[in-house]
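ok trying this again, last paste got cut off
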Amino acid sequence: MEFDINRPWKTLDKWQKKYCFNEDGETDNFLLCGRQVGKTTAMSIRAVELCVNHYKKGEFVLINSITEKQAYHMLAKAKVYAKEKYPSKVVWKGKDKPTKHVLNFKNGTGILCYAAGETGEGQRGFTIKKLMCDEGSRMSEEYFIAALPMLSVIKGSIDIASTPAGKLHKDGTEKFFYRCSLDKKFKKYYVSAEDCPRHTKDFLENSKKRLSRLAYAQEYLAIFTDQLKSLFSKELLDRNCVLKKPEVKTRGDYYMGVDIAGFGKDDCTFEVFRRRQDGVIEQVDNIVEKRNYTTDTTRKIEELNKSYNWMKKIGIDDGGIGFGVFSELMNNLEIRRKIIPLNNASRPVDHEGKKSKKILKEEMYFNLLTLMEQKKVLLLDNDEVRASLASMQLDEDGKIFGSNSHIAEGIDRGVWMAEKCKGLNIFAHSF
């Protein structure tokens, strides 16, 4: 049967079936997974199965992800599965009807979903039968200190899943997720992207060429490595992600960076910045949308240009799908002079016309990092912004990549626009 993204339970992999329908609801489960192998789908189905077939009144599953958006995504999958398989078991109406945070069942069980947060303080007070941690390798030690006591009173258990993100903290101590991989009490599932039938051989071969050996090993083969470094430290993000989104747009010099999604997948992000008179660059807006057509993205850029009617420059990736958006914007006489193509694979040139040895993507990220370290860039205090930047890593060959890079890609383009537009050649040339 062909895979149906809207009904994934019809074509589950063997490991997914084994995990989702395990009769033992008390077991701690450890899922070490490559990218896009179906772990979120499996956890959402497992949550429903536990509530309907194993738990009794007053016993709940709590889903924690790095951000609220990720947690909502898993709960949404659980709702779709429950509606298809157990429609008569769900409370659909009244005060206990489904919300963004809760899915209640008629037997008195339910699924809760919330963002983990930096410290897990928001989790205190719950009593939980099953704690599900999605992307657990990127959750802080403080979170687990706050969350684990929720399981004690009713003898709950934990399912923790993630792509690996190193074994050790900066101080040399082992990360919680890595410690779980060594704990014999966990039932373990190891899933490589190369074993996932939904990944084509061509896609994986291309990924091998684009990424370094270590980056591919971590992201696709789910192998722990400590030779990859976080580009933006937690301390740096805590210091610089401090702004609230302005309620009123004020006059000023505005710039925007756009990361364009592929058809029907990924996120399209629009990151707006204002350059103050003292040269500090402040983020004023972060918009994330799913777009199916280039015309939708073009329309959004034109809309934001009018909304911030002092917009100076707009940086977009003109490679791949982005070329269609770039071409459409070039036909708009009102906006074309503001559009700057920033292709990640191109190489910037200096004032003498010489190409840089680094590709533009690396130049833009190191520019962003330098300005953040100098506190010349201040960002929104936003979980999605933090999570995206925190996912960016630097490999042993100097290549930069991330598992959640869409917002970060928009940010580095927006900051590049704001920093480089005055008196510098910001245009990039392809190989």
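PB: full thing came through this time. Confidence is low (pLDDT under 50) at residues 423-431.
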